[in-house]
Write a structure and sequence with these properties.
The protein has about 130 residues and is an alpha+beta fold. It is about 40% helix and about 15% strand. The strands form 2 sheets. The protein has a two-stranded antiparallel ribbon with strand order 1-2. α1 runs antiparallel to α2.
């Protein structure tokens, strides 16, 4: 419960989004120790991920994470449609068919992973993603 309260305070707090995202990762590390983690925003014209905060990724992994190819995999795996956590062992397809895993994360020494899409509400009239006011 203490971690949940702290996460709520970070989310509602003042400061730049990058600072709050770093604080969030540090808080989550106490709950779930990790070797690497990141918070990325998906959007824009190119549909690529923009790093807000990340820790533990090498340059090659970070470059793939922010690539259009990774955005395509996010869509294929449904992270842009559902906010259900998904572990690598629970992927809907063989992990060897997921380029990011097979070519970047596994060779970098990762044996498991967890991803979840955190989605903003969509406005029904325009279909444009964004926060509700």
């Amino acid at each position: 419960m203490e971690v949940a309260v702290e996460i709520g305070q970070i989310a509602a707090g003042a400061g730049r989004i990058e600072q709050r995202a770093e604080s969030l990762l540090e808080t989550l590390r106490r709950l779930v120790p990790f070797r690497a983690a990141g918070i990325f925003l998906l959007g824009g014209e190119q549909g690529r991920l923009t790093p807000v905060a990340d820790q533990g990724y090498d340059d090659a992994v970070r470059a793939f994470i922010t690539s259009r190819a990774n955005s395509d995999e996010i869509e294929m795996l449904g992270f842009n449609r559902a906010s259900v956590p998904l572990r690598v062992q629970d992927l809907p397809i063989a992990r060897e068919r997921v380029r990011g895993w097979a070519e970047y994360l596994s060779p970098a020494g990762f044996r498991e992973g967890l991803g979840v899409g955190l989605l903003t509400p969509r406005r029904p009239a325009s279909g444009v993603a964004g926060p509700e006011h």
